[in-house]
Amino acid sequence: MKTLRVFGWAVIFTVTLLLAACASHTPKVADADTMSGPDATMTQPTERMQTLEERENALVINRAWLDERELQLANRAFDVDNRENDLVINQAWLDERELQLANRALDVDSRENSLAINQAWLDEREMQLNQPERGASRPAQLADVGSPRTKVEAGRCYATVVSPAEYKTVAVVKPIEQPKGGDLTVLYQTVTEKVKVTDEQMRWEEILCEDSMTEGRAIEIQRALSRSGYNPGPIDGVIGQQTMAAVNAFQRDSKLTVANYLTMETVKALNANY
């Protein structure tokens, strides 16, 4: 822009010099009021020539201004093209960033599923270690009355279960990470985050007593799981690891308490006939 201004001033200065030169070479004409005869008529063409020269000079100035204006518009169009290119680059970066976030979310979900499976296996293993050995036909997940995590009251069995913390998903507006060194406008995006609603709690839950768990009842529970779309493993009347994994999956999908026991609410939800 500074170059354009210098160029414009140079054009105006040149035109001004030309006008001054033309004025210095213009023949002097006597005043029309003091002249008479043929000399008075000669002043008219001279004045007309001066008018034409002035108009030509004005046209030259206007032409120089138009050229400068056209150059300014061309530079502005160039700036607009550059901005459009920057916007295209930013949009491509945003699309790639969104794809990376989506892939990361899938990876997080996969890890959470793996952790849930591992936790279920660890819980069952811990329960097996805390219980005395019993025959293969006995349900491994049923409570031992002497365990501090279980109790019997009025002929009903109870076990301590842990209700996990509850979370809800909320929308949060955060600035988008941008490459360093770029003088770009700060952009924002709406992302979802999990916020804790309630803390983890431990409580007593009624479970199916060990003496009530017959082979026929275990078979019916396995069949109910199979009817509900969960794979309990072989229908053999033994509540083993695979059956408990199906029970935990059913509890989780049904919004029930996920425990290493056959809770009464789970048996009722399965609608297992016994």
Word description of this protein:
The chain is an alpha+beta fold. The protein folds into two domains: 1-130; 131-158 and 206-274, no CATH class. 54% of the residues lie in helices and 15% in strands. It is built from five helices and five strands. A hairpin with a 2-residue loop joins strand 1 (150-153) and strand 2 (156-163). Helix 1 packs antiparallel against helix 2 and helix 2 packs across helix 4 (241-253). The relative contact order is 0.08. Mean pLDDT is 77; it is low at 26-36 and 132-148.
Describe this protein with a few key phrases.
2 domains, alpha+beta, 5 strands, 274 residues, 54% helix
**Tally of individual domains:** 2
Return Rg in Å.
46 Å
Along the chain, the helix and strand elements come as HHEEEEEHHH
Helix-and-strand structural type: alpha+beta
Strand % is 5-15%
Identify low-pLDDT runs: 26-36, 132-148
N-to-C span: 91 Å
Spatial ordering of strands, largest sheet = 1-2-5
Report mean pLDDT, rounded to a whole number.
77
**Distinct helical segment count:** 5
What proportion of the residues is helical, as a percent range? 40-55%
Shape by Cα distribution: rod-shaped
- Major sheet: size, sense and barrel closure? 3 strands, antiparallel
Number-wise, the strands total: 5
